[in-house]
Design a protein that fits this description.
- GO terms for molecular function: endonuclease activity.
- The protein folds into two domains: 80 residues; 230 residues, Deoxyribonuclease I, Chain A (4-Layer Sandwich), CATH 3.60.10.10.
- The protein contains ten helices and eleven strands.
- The strands form two sheets. Strands 3-4-2-1-11-10 form a six-stranded mixed beta sheet. It has a five-stranded mixed beta sheet with strand order 5-6-7-8-9, with helices on one face.
- A hairpin with a 5-residue loop joins strand 6 and strand 7.
- Helix 1 packs parallel to helix 4.
- The longest helix has 22 residues.
């Protein structure tokens, strides 16, 4: 048992130390994800050390401080996304209906065939916009009936798991499908006219995840490009998508710092959306970020529908005075 405990502590220390290295290598960046899991392993290590190594002062006074260090560091990285951290993005008190809208975001998992379940989730939650990742031609055929309720849409299906579609009940203006860093990975950019006539910008992304044989350079670059664009335009904007990154990574922190966008999860919770099938290994991969022109009405994780991602729904109010109140 002591050898197993040493292994657990060694694993948690390595998993904590690797993300500190400034690198785009996938096998380093992948350890940005399991901070909560590493923390659990470190807690378990302390318990096992106290039970099985109580008569070995060397192990006791080596393994426990290392585990406490891991827990402390990982907790600091994650605390912004727990109720122990102050909420930064303000809530709407009495939302104005014509300035309020909702966005449903879902990675459908291209080979998932539970089309009816997703359509039922959309019908039940009645969002104004629906952004779907991993959409191919078959998914579009199965979702054709959505065109009756969503008058506007941008459809870019692909068979490489990077297809993307935006359905909207609100008018879309100046819509574009861009390939910011890779000619096989699209992103959607459009203006949305609210019921009040106000115009906001919407950006939908789905960059490549860290995986063997790749780096995270393109993922990180795409996110930072859009963040810089939002900052330079200085207009009301929302960014949504399966970003294949967690909120507490160095990339996400840099993105927020440079763009100045709110993350509605700060002070509210993780809202883990992936992986549906492996509860212990769940991370917040599907994101909403927005400028300080918006007030949060609600944020909720929705029911599973056969994908490895849970859908997530945000309701916002556009308030032209919100930024002035905060600043």
């Amino acid at each position: 048992m002591p050898y197993f405990i040493i292994f657990l502590v060694f694993l948690s220390v390595i998993a904590t130390a690797l993300p500190m290295i400034p690198s785009y290598k996938w096998w380093i960046r992948i350890f940005d994800f399991p901070r909560a899991q590493v923390t659990v392993i470190a807690f378990l290590s302390i318990i096992l050390t106290l039970i099985f190594c109580i008569d070995s002062p060397l192990l006791l006074y080596t393994l426990i401080p290392l585990s406490i260090g891991v827990i402390s560091y990982q907790s600091i990285k994650m605390i912004r996304y727990t109720p122990f951290y102050p909420i930064r993005s303000p809530k709407a008190n009495l939302p104005i209906p014509d300035n309020s809208f909702s966005v449903l975001l879902a990675n459908v998992k291209m080979d998932n065939d539970q089309y009816g379940e997703l359509k039922e989730i959309i019908r039940k939650n009645d969002p104004d916009l629906v952004l779907l990742n991993e959409v191919d031609d078959k998914w579009l055929r199965e979702l054709q009936e959505l065109d009756r309720d969503f008058r506007y849409s941008i459809k870019y299906p692909q068979d490489n798991t990077y297809g993307m579609t935006l359905y909207s009940k609100l008018k879309l203006i100046d819509t574009k499908v861009n390939f910011l860093v890779d000619n096989t990975i699209p992103s959607i950019h459009t203006k949305v006219e609210l019921r009040s006539g106000k115009i906001i910008n919407f950006h939908g992304l789905h960059p490549e995840p860290p995986k063997p044989g790749s780096s995270t350079y393109e993922r990180d670059t795409e996110l930072l490009i859009v963040g810089k664009r939002i900052k330079n335009e200085d207009e009301p904007a929302i960014l949504a998508g399966d970003l294949n990154d967690v909120a507490w990574s160095a990339t996400s922190e840099l993105f927020q710092k440079r763009s100045g966008l709110w993350d509605p999860r700060e002070g509210r919770g993780f809202f883990n959306t992936y992986n549906v099938f492996v509860p212990f290994f769940r991370y917040p991969l599907d994101h909403f970020f927005y400028t300080k022109d918006f007030l949060l009405i609600s944020l909720s994780k929705l029911a599973k529908f056969g994908s490895d991602h849970f859908p997530i729904l945000i309701k916002l109010e556009f308030d032209p005075k919100a930024r002035t109140k905060i600043d």
